[in-house]
């Protein structure tokens, strides 16, 4: 291992070319200063290296199950890499500025959404109550409820101060203090009164008088700079007086810089972006609504849909509503409806179950089962969902549909869309449902006919000889199985770490599918290594690239070395929140020592599966001829 570690360090460009290093269950994840210095071909030819992959600004060297040992050897050689805190994990040369910007904004905005969603839902209910004259808008009760629904929007900079401080790893209370300066009542009242445009600091520095309530970028920029300034003073001021002087000097420097430079820049940039988007939508609501509604399934597949979130949030900060929210909602409903249409079109019982369960989860806002389990499989459904979402989005946009908060599109979040554009939203929704169903149905019956194959057996007949002692591996989670070759990660899809299968989970808990021992329990909590009593080495990996979450939204329910039995809880995770961060939540089950067996037979069709139901059948080798090892996946 030591020799392999030395060769890897040399071939990625040496110590001086490595910014940082982490690892997951199969890969060394380098952040290199210059990827062109890495000798990829030579690395791939190294004995012990399964491949090289570039993804998300990382240079990933695929090792397999022994990655932990190789990582430990590299840390022995380069101890400085062990101090890495994850701050620069995605800041590699190949990670574009736009990609980093979107990731940072999403990481800051998403944690603050809980009160925003609650407030938006409440505002929708209050609008409905007052519109139907079921409540007196002048009553004390409505005053309190309106205050409850408005507070988080008005004081949004405080929420962002906390999530920004966590993202930039600086003092949260100092960040909140800066938000307090932006929201200082005298400044806001002066801006609202419009009696002055600026005040003079030191008699010559103009401080623009701006209403920063509900703003986004000003506090994010300020906290970003704060993280550097605060660390600088902490480093240079003697420890005996740093408690007093670090906060003092930081505030004395940060507040003027924030009020004179950063906050005005952030405010006007955000305003102009929102106004530009609004102008484009107003120029042609039909075209913009169609494009956004139709393109979302493709954007989700490409992992680019998160670029929409900051724009939606800025629209709400500027105008108090978003016109893009309803377009995204229509697309989500279209994806669920397309899966529903497939339910009526096919006779295969397993696929009917997949389509129906995907429909239900889709209407509840989780579209991955429909997208990956149905739409990708049936072109008619994909086209139907795209066109139906586009048509519905266009109609909604044309009729003035709006959302009051950046919620996850779901039938449960409909109250957010109940405002003065409610009629347009409701009409657009009905158009989406009808158009999607009809288009999918007609396409499936004509130019894009679906392949409605009868049910097939789990394992091809003849693969298992009579009398052989096979080992069966059950499903660690209920969901929809699909071939590992379709996994959007070449490490798994090319079976570099072993043969296996993928599951799009329906539940948030992973159980042990075997009797055995927990041989690897990663501190990032997203993967587990098991060894069965028969010696089968199993890797259960939850999500793709979820190592980047550093354990957030995961909970380990077992310990390394623990003896487990079928049904023992292993991992608890939050599918909804992980999906909101843009990660594929597929659960990958891999037999990492596949080459020691004659055959590793996985389910050969896309279907619904429940916990503990047989997922993989392993046939012990009668010989070790490599050409006899076969994974049955069609």
UniProtKB/TrEMBL annotation:
SUPFAM superfamilies: Duplicated hybrid motif, Glucose permease domain IIB
Annotated PTS EIIA type-1 domain residues: 489-593
CDD domains according to UniProt: PTS_IIB_glc (cd00212)
Domain of life: Bacteria
List of catalytic residues: 24 (phosphocysteine intermediate)
Main location: membrane
Molecular function GO labels: kinase activity; protein-N(PI)-phosphohistidine-sugar phosphotransferase activity; protein-phosphocysteine-trehalose phosphotransferase system transporter activity
Any one of the GO BP annotations: phosphoenolpyruvate-dependent sugar phosphotransferase system
Bilayer topology term: Multi-pass membrane protein
EC nos: 2.7.1.211
Domain PTS EIIC type-1: 103-455
Compartmental location: Cell membrane
Catalytic activity: N(pros)-phospho-L-histidyl-[protein](out) + sucrose = sucrose 6(G)-phosphate(in) + L-histidyl-[protein]
Tagged with keyword Membrane: yes
Keywords of this entry: Cell membrane, Kinase, Membrane, Phosphotransferase system, Sugar transport, Transferase, Transmembrane, Transmembrane helix, Transport
Segments traversing the membrane: 101-122, 142-161, 173-192, 212-230, 242-269, 380-401, 421-444
Domain PTS EIIB type-1: 2-84
GO cellular component: plasma membrane
Primary role: The phosphoenolpyruvate-dependent sugar phosphotransferase system (sugar PTS), a major carbohydrate active transport system, catalyzes the phosphorylation of incoming sugar substrates concomitantly with their translocation across the cell membrane. This system is involved in sucrose transport.
Protein's name in the database: PTS system sucrose-specific EIIBCA component
Source organism (scientific name): Enterococcus rotai
């Amino acid at each position: 291992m030591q020799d392999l570690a030395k060769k890897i360090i040399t071939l990625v460009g040496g110590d001086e070319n490595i910014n940082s290093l982490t690892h997951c269950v199969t890969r060394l994840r380098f952040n290199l200063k210059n990827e062109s210095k890495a000798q990829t071909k030579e690395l791939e030819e190294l004995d012990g290296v399964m491949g090289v992959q570039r993804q998300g600004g990382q240079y990933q060297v695929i090792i397999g199950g022994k990655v932990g040992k190789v990582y430990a050897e590299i840390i022995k050689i380069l101890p400085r890499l062990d101090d890495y805190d994850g701050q620069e994990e995605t800041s590699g040369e190949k990670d574009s500025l736009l990609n980093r910007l979107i990731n940072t904004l999403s990481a800051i905005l998403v944690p603050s959404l809980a009160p925003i969603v609650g407030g938006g839902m409440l505002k929708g209910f209050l609008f409905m109550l007052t519109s139907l004259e079921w409540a007196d808008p002048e009553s004390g009760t409505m005053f309190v409820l309106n205050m409850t629904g408005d507070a988080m929007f008005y004081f949004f900079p405080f929420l962002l101060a906390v999530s920004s401080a966590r993202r930039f790893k600086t003092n949260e209370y100092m960040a909140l203090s800066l938000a307090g300066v932006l929201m200082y009542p005298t400044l806001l009242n002066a801006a609202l009164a419009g009696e002055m445009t600026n005040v003079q600091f030191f008699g010559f520095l103009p401080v623009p008088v701006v209403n920063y309530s509900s703003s986004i970028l000003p506090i994010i920029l300020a906290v970003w700079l704060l993280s550097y300034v605060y660390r600088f003073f902490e480093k240079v001021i003697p420890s005996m007086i740093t408690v007093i002087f670090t906060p003092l000097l930081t505030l004395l420097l940060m507040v003027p810089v924030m009020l004179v430079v950063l906050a005005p820049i952030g405010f006007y940039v955000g305003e102009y972006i929102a106004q530009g988007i609004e102008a484009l939508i107003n120029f042609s609501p039909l075209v913009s609504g169609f494009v956004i509604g139709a393109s979302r399934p493709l954007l989700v597949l490409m992992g680019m849909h998160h670029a929409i979130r900051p724009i939606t949030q800025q629209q709400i900060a500027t105008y108090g509503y978003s016109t893009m929210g309803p377009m995204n909602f229509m697309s989500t409903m279209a994806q669920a409806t397309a899966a529903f249409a497939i339910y009526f079109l096919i006779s295969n019982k397993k696929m009917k179950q997949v389509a129906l369960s995907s429909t239900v989860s889709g209407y509840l806002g989780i579209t991955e089962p429909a997208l990956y389990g149905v739409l990708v499989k049936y072109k008619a459904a994909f086209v139907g969902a795209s066109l139906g979402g586009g048509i519905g989005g266009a109609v909604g946009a044309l009729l003035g549909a709006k959302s009051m908060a950046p919620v996850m599109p779901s039938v449960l979040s409909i109250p957010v869309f109940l405002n003065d554009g409610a009629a347009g939203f409701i009409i657009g929704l009905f158009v989406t449902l009808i158009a999607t169903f009809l288009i999918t149905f007609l396409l499936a019956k004509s130019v894009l006919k679906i392949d409605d194959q009868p049910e097939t057996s789990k394992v091809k007949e003849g693969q298992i000889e009579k009398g052989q002692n096979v080992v069966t591996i059950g499903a660690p989670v209920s969901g929809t199985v699909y071939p590992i070759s379709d996994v959007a990660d070449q490490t798994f899809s090319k079976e570099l770490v072993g043969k296996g299968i993928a599951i799009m989970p329906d539940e948030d808990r992973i159980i042990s599918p075997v009797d055995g021992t927990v041989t690897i329990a990663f501190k990032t909590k997203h993967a587990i290594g098991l060894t069965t009593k028969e010696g089968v080495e199993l890797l259960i990996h939850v999500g793709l690239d979820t190592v980047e979450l550093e354990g957030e939204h995961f909970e380990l329910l077992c310990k390394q070395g623990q003896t487990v039995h079928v049904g023992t809880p292993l991992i608890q995770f939050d599918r909804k929140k992980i999906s909101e961060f843009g990660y594929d939540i597929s659960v990958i089950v891999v037999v990492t020592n596949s080459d020691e067996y004659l055959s590793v037979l996985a389910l050969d069709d896309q279907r619904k599966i429940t916990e503990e139901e047989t997922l993989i059948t392993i046939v012990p080798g009668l010989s070790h001829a490599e050409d006899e090892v076969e994974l049955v996946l069609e």
